[in-house]
Amino acid sequence: MHKTDEQFLSDLYRGAKMGVQTIESVIEKVDNRKMRKELMREQQDYKKFELKAMEEMTKIGAVPHDIPLGQKIGGKMGILFNTAIDNTPSHIADLMIQGNNMGVIGVTRLKHSAPNNGYSALADEFVQLSERNIEKLKSFL
After folding, report:
1. Do 45 and 17 contact (CB within 8 A), yes or no?
2. CA torsion angle for 131, 136, 138, 140 (degrees, to 10)?
3. Does the pLDDT of residue 1 top 70, yes or no?
């Protein structure tokens, strides 16, 4: 199935928004100052990307679709449950690496679903952002 430009950009927007919201949920559980600083940097990068995707949508007259409520609640509950059990930097880094990996996989699939649209570079930028986050988070494992 080929995605329209609007669907493609909306998916990228939601991926970045999910990153922002996930970090927002987990950061309050982080006691390690260095990790907290890293997560805040990552959140800023996702916010910048979210804005960039929204700007591209505006150019084509589209409005971004929000993250489905079930996905929002599920993500937040998963974080609350996992960090209630273990909120060590290693465990939180592990959770965040898994989330970033999911983003890389999702956006790579998205890119393959619409190989000839004009937004491959934007998708690549999201993947690079996520991969950079993974590398930084490895130091907390």
Report:
1. no
2. -150
3. no
Domains and CATH numbers, the chain: 5-133 (1.20.1260)
Residue 63 has pLDDT above 90, yes or no: no
State CA 50 to chain mean position distance: 9
CB of 25 closer than 8 Å to CB of 77: no
Q: Is residue 80 within 8 Å of 131, Cβ to Cβ? A: no
pLDDT at 49: 98
Instruction: Give me the long-range contacts of 95-99 (CB less than 8 A, separation at least 24).
Output: 95/26, 96/22, 96/23, 96/26, 96/39, 96/42, 96/133, 96/137, 97/134, 97/137, 97/138, 97/141, 99/18, 99/19, 99/22
